[in-house]
Amino acid sequence: MKYEQQKQVGNTPFVPLRGFQQTGAAEVWGKCEYLNPTGTPKDRLYTYIIEKLEESGQIQPGMTLVDASTGNGGGALARAANLKGYKSVIIMPEGMTQERKNVIKSWHGQIIESPAEEFLLGAERVALGFVEENPEARYLNQAGTQMNWQSMRSIGREVVEEFKKSGIKPQAFVCSIGTGGTYTGVATELENAFPGLLKIGIEVDKSAPLFSKRNARPFEHRHHNLMGLGPGKIGGNLNENMVDEVVTVSGDEAWQMMKKLVKKGYQTGPTSGANVLVALKYARRFGASGKIATVLFDASWKYISIWDGRYQHYQDASLPSEPPTAKVIV
Ligand SMILES: Cc1ncc(COP(=O)(O)O)c(C=O)c1O
Description:
Layout: H1 2-6, E1 14-16, E2 27-32, H2 42-55, E3 64-68, H3 72-84, E4 87-93, H4 98-106, E5 110-114, H5 119-133, E6 137-139, H6 147-165, E7 172-176, H7 181-193, E8 198-204, H8 209-214, E9 245-249, H9 251-263, H10 270-286, E10 291-296
Parallel strand pairs: 2-10, 3-4, 3-6, 4-5, 7-8, 7-10, 8-9
Antiparallel strand pairs: 1-2
The chain binds pyridoxal-5'-phosphate.
């Protein structure tokens, strides 16, 4: 039974987005990762990490698995750990949505909250402290382990397979960046299959380390409302060579696009809104026969309790946004 449930990870639909086609512009296809068992591609990541660490004898059932997360990775870890006979401890910055916490709790994960001011870097600090004090616990470190992007190659392989089945050669891949695992895993597979395809990374405007680096600007992390992006540093899983262009979006624009996606039947979250916003902008560059791939990250039901997009602990996010860099007319 437990094994049966794990088989549901991956093989998500990859579809042209109905209701978003712009005249004379490329078609945007979305990989529906929000349909994974806990509503995130992180289900792939923790299933993969646990399998790999077991294969190499580094962990055994009964141990405690620990990671820092804004909650998507946490829910996925709690599930994968529970199904494989491990305990899980998730370190989350305080103020994440109740829905994310509920997923973790429903899979018997323990939650420890870290200070909001330090956001994810604080959660990583607390996670390191936890494993130091609890030698039987293992820190999985999604932000740093290269198993993260390796696990996400499976998304890319599925995308390539679907495109090839339909005889499509895509022009571009658009995806937002947190740890960089999803971006790098998918971009790597797409680049192998369709060399020269344009690869566009997205950061949230209030915490955009790669954008700052490329534009020779000082990097500053500010509170934002696109949880999963903008951790406060360039993700340890980001292969910067795979990023041809990097753009920023404001949280509010992304939330607005997410609501349009939900109205059209895609029950996905705000970082998917960011992806589609930017993909639609690039679609105009390629003309009607073009195709662009993107990822629909997590599920909209994780945000019902804060549908206005205002996180109580991250109120800077409600300050006026910087001028939008990705204006899209749909
Ligand atoms: C909702 C959401 N979108 C995007 C991302 C970014 O994914 P990655 O960490 O693979 O870069 C995350 C990561 O946690 C996320 O939770």
